């Protein structure tokens, strides 16, 4: 009986071990994903409602009552539509039971292959670098706005209140150095939820202040169906260039396709990830579009053709100063989280490649357990510590050299919108579904793709022209107004 008992015990033990493996790991052998519709929606809202919302009143002012909202709705529809195509490509060859793809590049490799994989990598990671630089600029502007708001309240609205943004860029960078040690996307849910709450808060404050200003007694500003007036507000050439730049700003306001696959890779297996991601995209895009339309149109109604580039830091509002301060603190806190949402895919890409190439290096692969007070044990990787710190420092230095808010947002939006939000999702959908060439579906998808290319090119041209103009009058490392 003893041998039989021992045999049964071993059998039960083995079954328990298998059960533990199945319980703790997904079908690809990786740690079980725990993301839900809520966490995915929070990631999307954190990525989408960002600094872009602050420039929408200015963008509507350039385009007017007709073209402004129309462009906003067009970008929201295109972004949602192509995000559903991209969500279906997370697994290949089928969206439900196919092999997982962990990054945007992996998705392109599975469906398209060839040189397009390299082009996707260049577009995605250059965009992620640009976004993190843009967020460093915006966060510092918001922190400076708190100081300037208190200064204006104390000394009057005509005071100069010149304050340098560079110390605040350094403070932001120090915070990011610490948060960048969060190992991966799967550990970011709490930060994204906090950032999403902050984004709703400051957008709501901006909206409320705009309504109060627009509804105020004796309030009158100049608005029109076509926006800024040639010969009055701007010259003919300025109207064209600023309209192009406004389109780029709106494109930037919807930029989250660069991190969609990484967000989807955090979702649990059931229900199917593609279905949950589509629902999260609908929730995220529809919610943000509502905020964007309200902030853009009511902001335009409040400020008219003189709308500031950033309606919470451009001091269209001075009072109540404490509410302006609170809104700008919320912006800074939100951008702390948004920075991490956008840089984690880049961190993961570089670290995965280095692990593959130098798998024998203890500097790159070894983890060291460190006891952190109140937080328990944390595993420190020296390569992660050095490389991520260096990345944050470099982006902060670039932000200090080129602190141009609107021009920078427009250029990033224009450069990333076409390849990452439109071209690759459409091409992969055609390949995945094996849509026949020159069929009706193939033709209209191609028309959409080419139209978006033209829009991206004119938006990029406007933003580049704006950057060139700003550089003519700019002295690096001087105090910014």
TrEMBL record:
Main localization, broad class: membrane
Subcellular location per the Swiss-Prot or TrEMBL entry: Cell membrane
Residue ranges annotated for the Amino acid transporter transmembrane domain, each copy included: 34-468
Coiled coil: none
Record GO biological process: amino acid transmembrane transport
GO cellular component: membrane; plasma membrane
GO molecular function: amino acid transmembrane transporter activity; symporter activity
Transmembrane segments: 37-60, 66-90, 163-182, 188-212, 280-301, 321-342, 385-402, 408-426, 447-468
Keywords: Amino-acid transport, Cell membrane, Membrane, Symport, Transmembrane, Transmembrane helix, Transport
Family to which this protein belongs: Belongs to the amino acid/polyamine transporter 2 family. Amino acid/auxin permease (AAAP) (TC 2.A.18.2) subfamily.
Protein name (record): Amino acid permease 6
Gene that encodes the chain: LOC107791403
